């Protein structure tokens, strides 16, 4: 399997775009060889990159179409990388099945994120690390909910980074580290002098490492 087999857009996001810092951020805390649940894996390129860095990865997505796409990209010589269709509110795994977790831009789309967070935490071993990427106020999908102002039903991001952080703390999950991802044009000197809350308010996405 090669990078060329994956969607061009996904490759661009993970290799040089908004998700390029996620895997290095993940590797700062999560030991190589860990079993990792990649929740909301989409077309699976993030899962593939984790596997390529030495992790045992199970990619899960709600979409049958996405999982079929992921599975079609696997070759017979690939071990320790698999994909499964499932709902994050009812994961088909025993308690403490995985060492670690990655969930990028997925938890915030659930109707009740606290319920999803509890279910996700259930399948991670005590002491395991959970890396979340939560879309910030400047992310495009946030703007796509505009038509709700006209009474139309829309799929809306239900949670902001500061809300996720508060929820994790209220469930006694330690926030080990975090960092912001910003749109092009935002320079380090623009944000360094801002408070934590204001940095999150300007973010495209906020990355968190939690420890169960």
Outline the structure in words:
- With 212 residues, this protein is an alpha/beta fold.
- It has one domain (3-211): 3-Layer(aba) Sandwich (Rossmann fold), CATH 3.40.50.
- Helix content is 31%, strand content 20%.
- It is built from nine helices and seven strands.
- The chain has helices at residues 8-15, 22-27, 45-52, 64-72, 113-122, 140-143, 161-170, 188-191, 196-201; strands at residues 35-39, 56-61, 81-85, 100-104, 129-135, 174-181, 205-211.
- Strands 3-2-1-4-5-7-6 form a seven-stranded mixed β-sheet, with helices on both faces.
- Strand 4, helix 5 (113-122) and strand 5 form a beta-alpha-beta unit.
- Keywords: Methyltransferase, Transferase.
Distinctive features:
212 residues; alpha/beta; 7 strands; 31% helix; Rossmann fold; 9 helices
């Amino acid at each position: 399997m090669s990078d060329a087999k994956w969607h061009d857009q996904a490759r661009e996001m993970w290799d040089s775009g908004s998700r390029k810092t996620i895997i290095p951020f993940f590797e700062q805390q999560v030991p190589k060889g860990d079993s990792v649940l990649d929740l909301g894996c989409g077309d699976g390129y993030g899962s593939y990159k984790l596997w390529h860095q030495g992790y045992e990865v199970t990619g899960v997505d709600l979409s049958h179409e996405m999982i079929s796409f992921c599975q079609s990209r696997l070759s017979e010589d690939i071990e320790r990388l698999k994909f499964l269709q499932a709902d994050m509110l009812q994961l088909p795994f025993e308690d403490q099945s995985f060492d670690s977790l990655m969930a990028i831009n997925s938890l915030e789309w659930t109707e009740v994120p606290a319920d999803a967070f509890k279910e996700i935490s259930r399948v991670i071993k005590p002491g395991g690390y959970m890396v979340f990427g939560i879309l910030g106020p400047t992310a495009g999908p946030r703007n796509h909910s505009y038509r709700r102002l006209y009474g139309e039903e829309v799929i809306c991001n239900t949670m902001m980074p500061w809300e996720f952080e508060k929820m994790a703390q209220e469930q006694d999950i330690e926030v080990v580290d975090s960092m912001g991802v910003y749109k092009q044009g935002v320079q380090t000197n623009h944000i360094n002098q801002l408070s934590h809350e204001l940095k999150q308010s300007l973010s495209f996405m906020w990355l968190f490492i939690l420890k169960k």
